[in-house]
Amino acid sequence: MSIKKIILYISILAFTSAAPFLFPDFRTQLATLWLMIIVALTWDMTGGQMGYNSLGNIFFYGTGMYVAAVTAIGLVYDVGDYTSAAGGGINDFTDTQYFTGIFLGSIAAGLFCAVTAVVIGYITFGLRGPYFAIGTLGVAIAAGELVSNWDWIGGGQGITLPVYPGDFDVGKLFFYFLFAGTGIVLFIFLKWLYSTRFGSAMNAIRDDEEKAEAMGIHTLRYKLTAWAMAAFFVGIVGAISGFQLISFEPLESAYQTINLGIFMVICVLLGGKGTLWGPVLGAILFHVFKEVTWNYFLGWQWVILGALIVVTVVYFQEGVIGWLMRRKPEWFGIRVESKDQAAAGAGE
Amino acid sequence: MDQILGNISLLFEFPIVNVKIVLDGIMIGALFALAAYGLALVWGVMNVKNLAQGDFVIAGGYVAWWLEQHGLPALLGVPVAFIVLWGLGWVVYKLVISRVIERDLFTSLLATFGLAIMMAQIMNLLFGSDTQSVQLEYETLYFFDGFVDVPIAKLIGVLMAVALAAGVIVFMKISRMGQAIRATAQDARAARVLGINTEKVYAFTFSLNTAICGAAGAIIVMVWVIQPFYGITYSIRAFVIVTAAGLGNLPGVIAAGLGIGAFEQYGAHIFGIGYQQAVAVLLLLLVLMVRLVQQRRVRQSLK
């Protein structure tokens, strides 16, 4: 790694840690931005790098939320009693109980989601292209509907978790750094993963699955592992989001198929599919755009976001990074022969 | 759990309840089959998988509801929804669909998903998020000592659906445009060589699809309820039917449509009405899995 890159990474890291102190009014916004970056990066693992466009990754977000909540509550109270009381009476958590709840809940959420990803993936990875997208979308919608009918975990009312014990502003910082920490770990992990044989195998599956299989790559195993890793991280951020939201219900906030579930895809497309920085850049652009429309087009924000989705998909699918790669390939270390050189080469 | 078992045993104790459930299912399934036929048409002719299918259905329903609110007869809503949605479909085709035909399938899927979100939200802003329905002033027929009730309004709805389907099928078989559509579905390039304006055929096919959806929606609002966000479930049902039946298999689409209607009614009876959406979606997963096992036997995958 060159000195320039090291300086770049250190300055990004410094800015990340300083951001919530520089813009104290936007702490929750910045935390949400990290959430978008994480889900976009994990979507790109299967969507961009492996060519399996899932519309149901939101399933792991919602499941992570619920698993973490159930774990955290189950350590202290009986879950059925807690949810039927709906926050009235028994929601006293001591500080230790709260923090062990978050910690163990997030780990349990990540592991549970990884295991579910293997199970669901075993069924759905035989599907290709649009069938895979619709099948995973079906999983997410079905899960939301089933959870909203399951009274033990609150049914359609959802769950109310305890509030962060201590100062309100410190709580915001706490969640910001939880998201940011997860995001940084994920980014480093992916940077390493894409440089290994595993990353190449994922790209081979995307480019031509039959040929990859013929080359001796056990494609199903790679697909399952990749999706399980993505699900692990989505489950963890789902868990953190649950504690940050405090109170959540299945259809609008946990299994939000048409919100976050589609936003993560648009973030990746906007930034550039199949690149490491594309999802990050796309998430930042999308989040800013979303907040601006939310503030200035009250009521019509959803229509404008839908229009953004259509326009991005139809006209600008290569994304910012893809566009830059085409216009300025030398920035990415890709050497392109000019027409004269190619002609000279042919003449020799 | 006890309640579920009780509901199941009720089916055996009073077999006549089955007749009611199946009749209800077939009546609503006929409308699912209409929307699925439109999806299969667009899918087969221009290889676009339309996830906004259900939202066109709901839009058609709101056209009929709006007419009824303004004092016009509700039955007029069916032809009016057909015409209005034809226009809407043409605009959508020119703006979005015509640009995704040549692209990969995920593009069309995602673009129409964005479209679905947009349409649902616009309807939400225009008409509010309450469920709406149109009450027709007709009597209800009773059979088997009142165990089976058939509202005449539902019967009219089913008859209109059958008439519409028959009209579309005859149109596809004998008219010049119908022949051109079928030719384009077989081989777009060859059709172009033979002087068929495929661009026109595509626009016509998509508009026809949205018009069928609109008419189906106008019937649905008379026999059931609509809500701006119900669209996605109709899209999923249409996908279930087409996936189960296969493309270009009209009897299969009709049979699957009626079957899913009956299946959903059974699901709603056994598990309770809250599970109706979940049953529709779980059926999709079931159908995908069955198709997958079939394909695996010949070492292929669903593409």
Structure in words:
The complex is a heterodimer of chains A (348) and B (303). With 348 residues, chain A is an all-alpha fold. Chain A has a domain at 36-256. Helices cover 73% and strands 1% of the residues of chain A. Chain A contains 16 helices and two strands. Chain A has helices spanning 3-22, 27-47, 58-74, 79-85, 95-124, 129-147, 168-193, 197-207, 209-214, 219-245, 250-254, 260-271, 277-296, 301-315, 319-327, 339-347, and strands spanning 159-160, 247-248. Chain A has a two-stranded antiparallel ribbon with strand order 1-2. In chain A, α8 crosses α10. The longest helix of chain A has 30 residues, at 95-124. The model of chain A has no long low-confidence stretch (mean pLDDT 85). Chain B has a single domain (2-297), classed as Orthogonal Bundle (ABC transporter involved in vitamin B12 uptake, BtuC). Chain B contains twelve helices and two strands; from the N terminus they run αααααββααααααα. Chain B is mainly alpha-helical. Chain B has helices at residues 2-13, 15-46, 53-69, 77-95, 105-127, 152-174, 176-186, 188-193, 198-223, 231-245, 250-271, 276-297; strands spanning 140-143, 148-151. A two-stranded antiparallel sheet of chain B has the order 1-2.
